[in-house]
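User: quick one, fold this
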Amino acid sequence: FHAFDGKGYNIAKPFVGPIFFKRWFSKLDGHIAVSNPAKKFVNKYFPADYKIIPNGVDTKHFSPEVAPIAEFDDGKLNILFVGRLEKRKGANYLLKAYQQVKRDVPNSRLIIVGPGTRLRDKYEKQVKKLGLRDVVFVGYASYDELPRYYKTADIFCAPATGWESFGIVLLEAMAVAKPVVASNIDGYASILTHGAEGLLVPPKNAKSLAQALTSLLSDETLREEMGNRGRLKAQEYDWENVARRVLDLYREVLDRSQHRETFSLRRMIIEDTRKLFSRKVRAHAKTDRSS
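Assistant:
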C-alpha cells in the first residue's frame, strides 16, 4: 500500500473502500506498506498485519558520478526543488524562505524542477513581485536528466506541507550524496534523520526553512558530511535490497499458503475417512440387526 491521508482520498473513501477494495481485500495473503505513516493510514480502513517494505531507489542511476548541468555549474550555491508544482509540495514556502536566504547568501540560486502550469505562472509572478533574482523554473525533467540536476545542487529542499507517505525524492538526492532540508512530516521523517543526512524543519514555516538552508549553505564541510551519510543511507534502499525483501515476503506467504492447503487436504482426508468408517459401521449394524 502506497498512500497517505490527503484531500484526494477523502473524496474516494466512501466509494473506493467499501465497494471496490473490500471485495478482494479479505482474499489477500500478504500485506505491504511502504512506511509506517502509510501503514497507519490504511489500517484505519483495512486492518491487517502489514509488512513495512519501503520504495527503492536505483543507486547506480542516481549516483555521485554523474555530470552536473553545465549552465548551473558556475560556482553559485544551488538549492534544488524537485516535484510537481502543486500546493501540498510547498514551493510557495520555499520561495518565501529564499527571499531571506538570498539576502544572507547572495551567491545562492534556487532551481525548481517539475511539471505544472497554473501554479508555475503564479510562482513566477510571486518571484517578480518579490524582486527575487536567480530563481530558475526548469519545468519537466526526464528520468535520465534528474540525476544531473541533483548533482548540480548543493542542497536539496523538500518543503512539502504534508500527505506524503514516503519521500522518494529525498532518497534520490541522498543517493547522489546531497544534504537535504525537508519538512518534518511523517513520510519524510521515516527516511531522514535530523542532523545526520540533513535537517528537518516545521512544515509551512518559511522562517525556519530559511534558517536551515542558510546554515547549510554557510558550512561546506557539514554539507559534505551529510551528503556522504545520505549516500550510505540511500544504499540501504537500493532496489536490489528492497526487491529481496519483497521476494522474501512472497516466499513466506507461499509457505503459509501451502501449509494451509496441506492442512486442509489432511483435514479433508480425515473427514472423508471418518464418514466412510461411519457408513461401514452403520452398514454392519444394519446387517447384524437383520440377521
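User: anything notable?
Assistant: The CA atoms of residues 201 and 208 lie 6 Å apart.
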